[in-house]
Amino acid sequence: MRLFRSLASVTAAVALVLSVSYEAMPHASVAAPATDVPRPFGAECRTRVDGSEVTAHCHNPYVDTDRVRLHIECARWWDLDTDSAPADAGPAETVRLTGRCWKEVRSVWVSHQNLGS
Predict the structure, then answer these.
(1) Does the keyword Signal apply (predicted)?
(2) Who's near 25: CB < 8 A, 6+ residues apart?
């Protein structure tokens, strides 16, 4: 019986030392996120042409501010192409841009500029 008690206490002591030493061992660390990965950017813009008038609605779902401009190319050679004033679409904001030609519209597009970090 005496042998059993000493064997039990030795086994308990070894188990305690092994569990403590396992906790003290260095573990694999989690790598920090890469800083060179670009953050999502860019407002989603929907344009509508109604005759000679153009309207664009741009919604920015991201954190960085997006400076948007509406560009209109007119169909007639004598009709002046136009660019709207820049508008800042902040996080979760929607901006409206408008413009027009005297006659028909040939093409419309929106340019983006990242004003974030």
Answers:
(1) yes
(2) none
